[in-house]
């Protein structure tokens, strides 16, 4: 039991470090264009995640179309119907553990929904939203 607790603790700490480092690097990027930038915002992130747009395939979708509205539950891919595991790192400790993976999917998924890549600010806002859910 003690072992399990420490493993979980170490895991969640390393997980948090990956997200923090990632958010810090995005913040550095935003500050280049916006010297008065205060920080990433949950509310802006919520709007990015839940609002609908005509996506890459010409259909109106949002991030929630594939990830659902409850990020602690599994959801279904809007196009393929395949199950997607919970996006919240609270429910799914594998989330936000590899920057390469986060970047790959944000690029792809912003394209799915917004038909373009996300800016550093948008990515930081939406990640801030997801990890607090
Ligand atoms: C067409 C379906 C679809 C849409 C729309 C979609 N996603 Fe995803 N997303 C996926 C799939 C599939 C994966 C990869 C499989 C997995 O990780 O479970 C993924 C993975 C991710 C990950 C990876 C997290 C990690 O570390 O494992 C993030 C972050 C993410 N999506 C955010 C978003 C955001 C933000 C939006 C809206 C801009 C969005 N997604 C819209 C299907 C979608």
Automatic annotation (TrEMBL):
Pfam families, per database record: DUF1924
Superkingdom of this protein's organism: Bacteria
SUPFAM superfamilies given in the database record: Cytochrome c (SSF46626)
GO molecular-function term, one example from the UniProt record: heme binding
Name of this protein: DUF1924 domain-containing protein
Protein source organism: Malaciobacter pacificus
């Amino acid at each position: 039991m003690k072992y399990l607790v420490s493993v979980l603790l170490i895991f969640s700490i390393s997980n948090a470090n990956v997200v923090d480092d990632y958010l810090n690097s995005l913040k550095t990027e935003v500050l280049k264009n916006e010297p008065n930038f205060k920080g990433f915002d949950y509310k802006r992130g919520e709007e990015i995640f839940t609002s609908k747009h005509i996506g890459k395939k010409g259909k109106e979708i949002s991030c929630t179309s594939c990830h659902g509205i409850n990020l602690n539950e599994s959801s279904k891919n809007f196009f393929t119907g395949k199950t997607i595991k919970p996006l919240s790192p609270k429910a799914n400790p594998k989330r936000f553990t590899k920057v390469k993976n986060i970047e790959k999917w944000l690029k792809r998924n912003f394209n799915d929904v917004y038909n373009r890549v996300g800016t550093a600010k948008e990515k930081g806002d939406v990640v801030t939203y997801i990890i607090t859910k």
